[in-house]
Known about the structure:
This protein is α+β, with helices and mostly antiparallel strands. The protein has helices spanning 3-14, 20-29, 50-63, 87-90, 132-151, and strands at 34-38, 44-49, 70-73, 78-83, 91-92, 97-99, 104-108, 117-121, 167-168. A five-stranded antiparallel beta sheet has the order 6-2-4-3-8. A two-stranded antiparallel sheet has the order 1-7. The protein has a two-stranded antiparallel ribbon with strand order 5-9. A hairpin with a 4-residue loop joins strand 3 and strand 4. It is globular, with a radius of gyration of 16 Å.
Amino acid sequence: MTDAGATSAVEWLVSVAPDPEACRWEWERNPLGVSLLPAGRLWDVLILPGELGRSTLDVVARITVRTGPVLADVTDARLGFFVPPGTAARWIGTGVRSAGHGTWIVVPYPGRSTGGVRWLVPPDGSGRLTDPVVLEMAMHEAAALIADDAGAPGGPGATGGADGAGGPAGEG
């Protein structure tokens, strides 16, 4: 990420903070390099289990020019896709957690590594988000691929990865 891209991404992220300067201060002085930001203003976050999330990100990357920001925890056990605000309230899906209005998420400074969470796809400052319809289709394809791999001879066995595909109520 370029310095200009990081600056633009920082400005976009801190624009949701109740106190943008306090958010910047946290990023600079917190030994973990993270800050808490409220979801539900410019974005919601859909949190997928690791295997489904990684496979979904691969599918989204194949079918779109650029996905929205994606966070991962340090062990890649969970991936968080930034989606338009309001998506979390409409999403129906087993195994998919959401952060929307009234919730907060841990966000690292764009372009820096932290001990607990990292950007797989950092924000670019444009406000680009992952389209929830594209995300839903990608989740279904990823779940099918995981299920196929699990059933293949010599495959890793049943993973339960097919659970978790869902979508916004009234869509899909």
